[in-house]
Specification:
By secondary structure, the protein is of the alpha+beta class. Helix content is 44%, strand content 11%. The radius of gyration is 40 Å and the shape is elongated.
């Protein structure tokens, strides 16, 4: 077009068209730019959404090697399950250890196309979604077994999910399920599913569920039990057989009907089973009650202390912990301790009067108020004062303080003195204990006269002997003047008699005369197994330094084991979830005292239970035994520690608060503690059919005749033929005294021949 030939109107139209074209082109450019931005944003959001989904997926390592949290199991020496440590109470099992009926019930109810799909059943999913839209509900998700496994195994589901969160989770389930199907066979998927799923009542996995609901192993489940466990998978709350038995029965029968419709059971089986009631274990559901809770806590503390060294997680890694405990002995220990404490609690309640101990009661009440959560949570001093006054004048609260303070406690431990293995442990009167004070391992109390064997051991090792005599009269040693328990005093008496009768004055004389110097007593006690700090005072002879029941029992075991110290051991072996050994443990052995000294002390301690302060043992137990009673000032603590050729055991009985005490002679160690020891030994030897054994005398110990008159004169001498009254006793030949000079003219009597020295001391 020649612009020069245009008319004015055409000229104007021409430029208007050019402007319109430019405007249109500019508008198109802006639209394209906006569209590009929108598409870019959408692409970015899509990529971000995909990244968000992927970031929430388990790692490749987790997909290829799933590790569900497994409970660590603790076993007794005789192979019984003692207890578990867990966050999720799960015991792993394999697919061959579950009945076919359980697998059939699972597939018939949860995923009928399980063997045909590759992780996701889209046909079933879209049908479920359509049903949800039509019915305006959100009940059907159509998750396959593999999807459910992915959700449970990798914790994909969160609490209070929104619609968006549910959609995201479903996508993650799909992706994870497909990956699981690529890495595992159908049998392996079923095995993982049954080990991971939650059945309620703290039961993770079918093995734990079988134990908790039916007290049996999974392989022993019958048809109706299998159906009930599968029913619980839909909702362990709605179908809880305890809280909602009708719901549980209805759901169980629905599972049975699914199996019938799939041809997995016959019509006859269905009719017979659906009418059966739900039968659960008689034990309290949801709790694994350990027969040795105090021992379990003792093991837990040791396992926690070793966790960093061996790199395990006690609560997640499914360890197998093999211990020294003997389930049979533990049951006996529990029984005799409970029986004795029940009897003794009644005796104490009759003899204790809070009206005579009001100052103590007020102190205890104030302490409990200040330790109460209500008092601690108060915001102001004014609020705390109101709470304090209200509780201090609350009769029910005061009664609860009285009951708690007056509760008799016990610490009882049994060991094999030759191996150091702990065979039974009762750490308190509460045998349903979970966490708290273990009175066998964590308390320290004065052992009283139960400490005297260590003093006598030093004296024997220093060259003295059972027939050696000391004066049974009070003395004053730099202000220290011990008294005998009944204020009975006499002339000279032998070390054997003094130990048997627990004569304080003679034990004190051993210390102050340097026959058993206090520093040496401390040294020997530590070598023999006492780890607590001991005070270097003469009163140590009477057991004034505090020890734990476990350590004094272990130290007595050194005597029983012919002078060889064996450290206590409770954990024998740890295995990982695959049965590979993490570590094995052995006790430490060391020679603490000579075999000769151990034999002599054992022989002397036998007299404690033959005619001495521990003679009550014979009321219950008639095998060879040795031991020592212990009673502290004002009957605050009662002890009996003793041993047989096969076992060593120690008992402490007392109160958590030192100021609450047995206020009479019924609080003696021979009465308050000894019966537990004696009844345990009697029942253990009978129920376990332990063979009769005697203490064997060391070949380095001989028998000699001593002149009684020289003993009574405080100058113990070997007897001659002229001595009218002889005392036969054992002695280390290295420590033979001179012959009697009181009765002159007689020939020297020869020591007993080897054939006369049988070493079979007994009753």
């Amino acid at each position: 077009m020649n612009i020069k030939n245009l008319s004015d109107s055409e000229f104007d139209n021409y430029f208007d068209n050019v402007k319109d074209k430019k405007k249109k082109k500019s508008g198109d450019d802006k639209f394209k730019k906006k569209l590009t931005i929108i598409l870019s944003v959408l692409a970015f959001l899509f990529v971000a959404f995909i990244v968000y989904i992927v970031m929430g997926l388990p790692s490749l390592e987790e997909l290829e090697n799933p590790k569900p949290q497994l409970a660590s199991k603790v076993y007794t020496a005789d192979g019984e399950l003692l207890g578990q440590f867990y966050i999720e109470n799960r015991i792993e099992t394999d697919i061959d250890s579950v009945p076919k009926s359980l697998v059939d019930a699972l597939i018939a109810t949860e995923d009928r196309k399980f063997y045909d799909h590759w992780g996701v059943d889209f046909d079933r999913f879209f049908k479920a979604m359509a049903k949800n839209v039509i019915t305006f509900s959100n009940r059907g998700g159509a998750s396959t077994i593999t999807q459910q496994l992915a959700k449970n195994l990798y914790k994909l589901k969160g609490k209070n999910e929104s619609v968006f969160a549910t959609a995201v989770r479903k996508m993650r389930e799909w992706i994870s399920a497909i990956q699981i199907e690529k890495n595992f066979t159908k049998r392996e998927i079923l095995e993982l599913y049954l080990n991971v799923s939650y059945f309620g009542r703290s039961a993770y996995g079918v093995e734990s569920a079988s134990k908790i609901f039916f007290d049996k192993k999974a392989k022993d489940l019958n048809l109706q039990e299998s159906a009930l466990l599968v029913a619980l998978l839909k909702s362990s709350v709605v179908y809880d057989p305890i809280k909602n038995p009708e719901n549980a029965l209805h759901r169980r029968n629905l599972v049975l009907n699914n199996m019938r419709s799939e041809g997995m059971i016959t019509q006859e089986q269905y009719e017979q089973t659906k009418d059966q009631p739900i039968v659960l274990t008689k034990e309290k559901l949801g709790k694994f009650k350990s027969i040795a809770p105090h021992f379990m806590e003792y093991v837990r503390q040791q396992m926690e202390a070793m966790a960093d060294k061996y790199g395990y997680n006690l609560y997640r890694d499914g360890l197998s912990i093999y211990t020294s405990i003997d389930m049979r002995m533990q049951r006996i220990a529990n029984r005799v301790a409970a029986e004795h404490l029940k009897e003794y609690q009644a005796i104490f309640n009759k003899n204790w009067d809070w009206n005579k101990n009001l100052a103590l009661l007020n102190t205890l009440v104030e302490k409990e108020i200040k330790n109460s959560e209500e008092y601690k949570d108060a915001d102001t001093d004014y609020d705390r004062t109101k709470i304090f006054e209200r509780l201090k004048n609350n009769p029910a609260f005061i009664d609860s303080v009285k009951t708690m303070a007056a509760k008799i406690q016990v610490g009882f431990v049994v060991m094999d003195p030759h191996t150091g293995q702990i065979k039974a442990m009762v750490g308190g009167e509460n045998q349903e204990f979970l966490y708290g004070l273990n009175h066998a391992t964590q308390i320290r109390r004065q052992p009283g006269s139960a400490f005297k064997p260590f003093v006598y051991t030093v004296a024997i090792d220093n060259g003295y002997y059972p027939a050696y005599s000391l004066l049974n009269q009070r003395f004053d040693y730099n202000g220290w003047s011990p008294a005998n328990s009944h204020n009975d005093y006499s002339g000279y008496m032998t070390l054997r008699e003094a130990l048997a009768q627990s004569v304080n004055v003679v034990a004190g004389r051993l210390i102050i005369s340097n026959m058993a110097p206090v520093s040496q007593v401390i040294q020997y006690a530590k070598k023999m197994g006492i780890n607590s700090k001991l005070g270097a005072f003469p009163s140590l002879a009477l057991g004034t330094s505090e020890v734990t029941p476990l350590e004094i029992t272990s130290a007595y075991g050194t005597i029983a084991n012919k002078g060889v110290r064996v450290s206590p051991i409770s954990i024998m072996k740890i295995e990982d979830r695959n049965g590979m050994t993490v570590s094995q443990f052995m006790p430490e052995y060391s020679v603490a005292i000579s075999e000769e000294t151990a034999s002599i002390i054992t022989n002397m301690m036998q007299d404690v239970v033959t005619y001495g302060t521990g003679a009550t043992v014979k009321k219950y137990f008639f095998r060879p035994a040795a031991g020592k009673t212990g009673t502290t000032t004002e009957f605050a603590d009662a002890w009996f520690v003793g041993f047989t050729p096969q076992l060593v055991a120690g008992v402490w009985v007392g109160f958590d608060d030192h100021r609450v005490k047995f206020n009479g002679w019924y609080g003696q160690g021979a009465r308050a503690a000894l019966p537990i020891w004696a009844m345990f030994m009697a029942d253990t030897y009978k129920e376990l059919n332990l063979p009769l054994q005697y203490f064997q005398m060391s070949s380095g110990v001989t028998t000699a005749a001593f002149c009684r008159e020289s003993i009574q004169a405080g100058e113990t001498r070997l007897a001659t033929d002229a001595c009218p009254d002889k005392v036969m006793d054992i002695i280390n030949p290295k420590n033979m005294p001179e012959y009697c000079t009181i009765h002159k003219g007689g020939a020297k009597a020869a020591p007993a021949k080897e054939t006369e020295k049988k070493g079979d001391s007994g009753w």
